[in-house]
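Protocol step 4 of 6: structure prediction from sequence.
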Amino acid sequence: MPFLSLVILASTVFCVVHAARTGRFWPWGYVVIFLPGFGAAAYFLFEILPQWRHDPKARRAQAQLVQAIDPGRRYRALRDELDFTDTIGNRANLAEECLALSKYDEALDLYEGIIKLPQGDEPVYFLGKAKAQFGLNQPQAAVATLDGLKTQWPNFRSQDGHLLYARSLEAADRLDEALTEYVSLSAYFAGAEARVRQMLLLDRMGRTDEARQIAEEVVKQFKRSPNFARKQQAEWLSRANAYLKG
């Protein structure tokens, strides 16, 4: 069977099944069947494509595909937007994208510039600055920034900021302090990352029995978890399993 015929057959079957499952078989099922190729193209154009455009999941998938193909596309757009209109919001958006692309030098410059502005005195910008400093392998500077944040905004809460603080202490070889933060963080952190990082730090400190106990608890917990939770935490579950097998 020629390739084009296979494509037409496959598209016809797909569109007929889709129309039947979504309650659109009348009249679309007949259009697709009796107008091979053209019917499927029309169905895709008038039914599937608009649905994808308005479906949040489809839009996220499209954004992820664009990002994978051209990782710098959003960065360039945000850079142009900032050049056109220099606002705190545009600077912050570009700084976040710089963090995502590991452009830590630029992110740090942006956050420091924001903080100097009259309306830039906000905890989220100090947290962004600390993320950039950590990315630049400046853990002591990140700790200092986060300590300043805690002093200025004692009621500010961020599990990501708390995790960054613990990781920065560990990277600065302040291991006992880092362990204290991991223990505190593990009490409320959503996911297994904090517990697994605590496990790895305990192992680094030679406290292997405690590390192994945490690994066992993590693995046991996720055995009772639904599949989507295990998929979301696959990296940390894998590390816990690897530690037990090692």
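Step 5 (inspection) to follow. Residues 3-21 form the longest helix (19 residues).
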